[in-house]
Amino acid sequence: MASYSIFHNEVDEGGGVSDYTVTSSNLTGSGTINDPWIVAVGDDVDFSCNFAAAGSTVFGLNSGIWGQTSLTLNLFNPPNLTVLNGLDLTDGITYQTVTYYVRRQGATDTTPDQFSVGADVTNAALSSNTFRSFTVTGINADITAVATKTGTGFCKVGPTASGPWLDSVGGIGNNEVVYCRFTAPTGNSETSTYTVTIGSVSDSMSITTVAASDGTPDAFTFTDVSNVEPSATQTSNLITISGINISTAVSVSGGTYSKNGAAYTSSAGTAVNGDTFRVRHTSSSSYSTAVNTTLTVGGVSDTYTSTTRAIDDDPNSFSLGGNQSDLGRSETVPLSSWTVAGMDATATITVSGSGTAGTQVSKNNENFFTSLTGIANGDTIYSRGTTSSAYSTAVTATVTANTAQTSVTLTTEADPTAGPDEIAFPITTGTIKMSDINDFFAGTGTSAPHNLGAYYRGGTYVPNIGTNSGIPTSGAIAFSDFYSSATVFSFVVDPSFKSSENNQPAPGSTTISVAWSALSDWEVGPNGSLNIGATEYRYRNFVITQNQNGSQVPSVTAGTTTYSTANTLFRIGMTTVNNQEDFAYGTMIIDARSVADNTKVASKTVQWSLLVNSTN
After folding, report:
1. 318 pLDDT exceeds 50?
2. Is the domain of 172 the same as that of 193?
3. For 283-308, what is each residue's pLDDT tens digit?
4. Residue 174: helix, strand or coil by DSSP?
5. What are the CA-CA distances from residue 241 to residues 214, 247, 265, 582 (Å)?
6. What's the farthest any 2 CA atoms get from each other in the chain?
7. Are residues 229 and 183 in the same domain?
């Protein structure tokens, strides 16, 4: 059976006047009180009741009336009940308020609800204090808080925020606050655990102190760079300082540094953990040369090194225009010009080749040599090679600029006498006159008297081919030997490369040209016997490969693009004015076609160049 006590002016439920104990049968509710103010078995609630006038909800107290609208208590002979002056319990007129407290006197509960002393602390200063507090709930009797710890430092509790600080504090009631003071360990990088225990419930936290002062960072590394351009700004990779817990000195040599993205400086400074750095310098003005910048932080250093690239005395790759074929024998062939670029210094250009290439080079189309020195960026190099004196023969022309090298092959045409370009002698039976033989083999331009020795097979006019096997190479010769004979229609001497150079007057104009003549520059048929009269000519595919100035354009000034026996001269010319320097070169094809058999055609590509020098 639960018991209850009534107290007068009770503040601390543990004190006050002597208890007046009533049984549950003495405690009845009026039915007009709502939770949580119903005083019932199992409650632990303070209750205030007032003396009231007669006529209120009442309960008996001797012969007087003690009223409370929310609760009726039947109390009999309460001892030590003090009635304040002015209270008349009999007349029901005069009254004054007196506060009483009712508390259930049941089983004692000293196990509090779980409480928390707070989160752990790190990087605490040595012997520093951390203050915490919490409110005790869930008890109905006074209890004691006990403080303990592991490690160095101190763990204390107190009844107020200012202490006193003790190993334990008793008399702690429900809803009262417990104050704690946790003192950090006395050594660096130490951890202590602090525990507060109330009854069977406890909670702990830890404090870890700062590490010992350390101004020496972990090693850091700059990534070196190489093959950089001379006299260029070089900036290192970003490094982050770690492993220190105090500010430490920073210095730089051989360059500047930037801290945390700020402006670069060479002045001494400081760093703390987590700071970032880059270093910077200007690379060497010399080739294959290193520049070093050293950053020192707290006595730890690393060096950022940039090394310039090696000197480049090789020009950019160049072309001579590619291989050429079907060229005339012993012909001088111009190769493509190229402009020197991509070097850091001057170069020496040399030539070489297999066979009888006869390769030569010229700077800016001046005199041709087998080597050139002091070649610089912007110079234009002209090259030429000489073909073999034999048919179907290739030679190699090679131009070398320091270690850069390009080669082309120049291949002569096939032996025309070994080919199918035969023209049959038109008389196979009957009478043959000397003029028939002469006009066919030597051409109409050849007049009597005739030397019969020139008409032997392999002689001046008669090719040494299988079709002519009936014609003797010496001894007796008869006109009938020429039945079923043939001549060969081809260039046996090719038109060659022609060039011309002139100086430009100032002021004024100059005309410059190159020309090829059927009388002197080529031979068609054996020993040129078919050049005149027996052959008609034309030109085609006139190409300007390069025109340096471009103000004046070369053109064909003699010859036509249609076949004619009158086309025995072809000329290319150019006129320049106002003291302008100009250079142009290119190609043109000359076609020869047999008058006797217009299915027989021989063609040759001729190359030409025109150079006008300024007199300024």
Report:
1. yes
2. yes
3. 999 999 999 999 999 999 999 999 99
4. coil
5. 12, 11, 18, 66
6. 191
7. no
Distance in angstroms (rounded) separating the CA atoms of residues 84 and 380: 129
- Of residues 4, 3, 2, 9, the one with CA closest to residue 81: 9
Q: How does 462-475 read in b/e, with b if 16+ C-beta sit within 10 Å?
A: bbebebbeebeeee
> 315 lies in a domain?
no
Peptide bond into 164 cis (omega under 30): yes
| 272 contacts: CB under 8 Å, gap ≥ 6 | 241, 244, 246, 247, 248
What are the strands, taking DSSP E only, across 128-230? 129-135, 143-150, 154-158, 168-172, 177-183, 191-198, 201-209, 225-228
Range of the domain at 185: 121-209
The helix/strand/coil state of 534 is coil
CA dihedral 88, 89, 95, 100 (to 10 degrees): 130
CATH number at residue 195: 2.60.40.10
Q: Which of 65-69, 235-239, 548-552 has the lowest average pLDDT?
A: 65-69
Specify if 317 maps to a domain: no
Q: Which residue has the tokens 């006159």?
A: 433
- Residue 316 in any domain: the answer is no
CA angle 244, 246, 247 (to 5 degrees): 105
**What is each CA distance from 11 to 4, 99, 230, in whole angstroms?**
17, 11, 91
Count of residues in the chain: 616
In a domain, 111, yes or no: no
Residues 38 and 101 in one domain: yes
Q: How far is CA 180 from the centre of its chain?
A: 59
The rounded distance, in Å, linking the Cα atoms of 88 and 51 is 10
Q: Are residues 335 and 359 in the same domain?
A: yes
Both tokens of 287, joined, read: 């080739």
Same structural domain, 90 and 3: yes
pLDDT (tens digit per residue) in 5-50: 333 333 333 333 333 333 333 333 332 222 222 333 333 333 333 3
The number of folded domains in the chain is: 6
Q: Which of 39, 116, 26, 117 is closest to 71 using CA atoms?
A: 39
